[in-house]
Design brief:
Number of domains: 1
Shape: flat
Order of helices and strands: HH
Distance between the termini: 22 Å
Largest sheet: none
């Protein structure tokens, strides 16, 4: 799994939280 794929997976599994996802996108 590439770094990009790992990041997308991390975002996907945290989508329900939302706050974590927004922090990643804003950075």
């Amino acid at each position: 799994m590439s770094t990009f794929e790992s990041a997308m997976y991390f975002v996907k599994i945290n989508t329900e939280d939302g706050s974590i996802t927004r922090r990643i996108i804003n950075e």
